[in-house]
Design brief:
The protein has about 240 residues and is α+β, with helices and mostly antiparallel strands. It is built from 6 helices and 8 strands. Belongs to the acetyltransferase family. NAA40 subfamily.
C-alpha cells in the first residue's frame, strides 16, 4: 500500500528560489492567509464545519484548523503520526532529523491543517477491494490523517505548498490520500493559487510514485533542473 508522506520543505531555498514578489502575486496569498478556518472552508466548499469523504470501507470528515485552534492533545497526535512516518526518512537524508524544528514548522502561525476523523466503519467494502473491512484502531476524536499546507509566493507564483500529507498505516489503501489531495486542489483553485507544490524525498519511492500518479511533475524550481544533485524532489501540478 502506498505511503503518502511528503518531505516538508528544503531548509535552504537559496539555490532554487528566485522570488519576485510582485503585487499581484502577493495580494492573492495575503488574501488567502487572512481567511479564518471557517471562512476558508465556506469559500471552498460552502460549509464552515467539515468536508465528508466516503471511502470504500469507511467514511471520514475533514476539518480545517489554524494551529492556535488545536488542542494540546491534537498537536501531540499529529506530531506523533508525522514522527512515526517520517523520522527514519529524515535520518537517512541530507537534512537529518530535528524534532523541535519540525514541531515548530508544523504549528507555525501561517500553517493550515486539515484533520481527518473516522466517522463510520462499513460492514463490507463497497469496491470489493477488501475481503474483510480492515480494523481501524482509532476513535472518532482522534485524527487518523492530516494535511499541513500554507499559502505562499514561490518563484513569482502564488502557490499552495503542501508541507505534509500523513496517514496512519491503518487507513492507507483506501484512496484517502488521493481524496485529501483533491481537497487541496479545490482550496488552491478557489483561492487563486497557480500551483499545488510539495517536496518529497527521492528515495521514498512509494510516496514519489503516489504523487507522480496523481499528476505531479518536476517543478521549475527543482534543483535537478539546474545541475544540482540532491536527495529530494520539488513536484507541482495545476489545481
Amino acid at each position: 500500500m502506498p505511503l503518502v508522506e511528503s518531505g516538508g520543505r528544503p531548509s535552504d531555498r537559496r539555490a532554487v528560489r528566485r522570488a519576485g514578489y510582485t503585487g499581484d502575486f502577493r495580494m492573492a496569498v495575503v488574501s488567502a492567509k487572512q481567511l479564518s478556518s471557517d471562512e476558508l472552508m465556506r469559500r471552498s466548499f460552502g460549509t464552515d464545519s467539515h468536508v465528508t469523504l466516503d471511502c470504500c470501507c469507511c467514511s471520514f470528515i475533514v476539518k480545517c484548523f489554524c494551529p492556535s485552534e488545536l488542542t494540546a492533545n491534537h498537536k501531540a497526535r499529529l506530531f506523533s503520526i508525522l514522527e512515526k512516518n517520517m523520522k527514519e526518512f529524515y535520518m537517512n537524508s541530507s537534512w537529518g532529523w530535528n524534532g523541535s524544528a519540525k514541531f515548530e514548522e508544523l504549528f507555525a502561525t501561517d500553517s493550515r491543517l486539515l484533520l481527518c476523523f473516522l466517522t463510520n466503519l462499513k460492514t463490507c467494502c463497497d469496491s470489493g477491494l477488501h475481503d474483510v473491512t480492515p480494523p481501524l484502531p482509532t476513535s472518532p476524536d482522534e485524527p487518523c490523517a492530516f494535511v499541513h499546507f500554507r499559502f505562499e509566493v514561490d518563484t513569482q507564483r502564488p502557490v499552495l505548498y503542501c508541507y505534509e500529507i500523513q496517514l496512519l498505516e491503518e487507513v492507507r489503501g483506501l484512496k484517502l490520500g488521493q481524496k485529501l489531495l483533491h481537497i487541496l486542489y479545490k482550496v488552491a483553485a478557489i483561492n487563486q493559487m497557480t500551483r499545488v507544490i510539495l517536496t518529497v524525498f527521492r528515495f521514498n519511492y512509494p510516496a514519489y510514485t503516489f504523487f507522480t500518479k496523481n499528476g505531479f511533475k518536476t517543478d521549475t524550481s527543482d534543483p535537478s533542473r539546474y545541475g544540482q544533485s540532491v536527495d529530494y524532489a520539488i513536484l507541482s501540478r495545476l489545481p
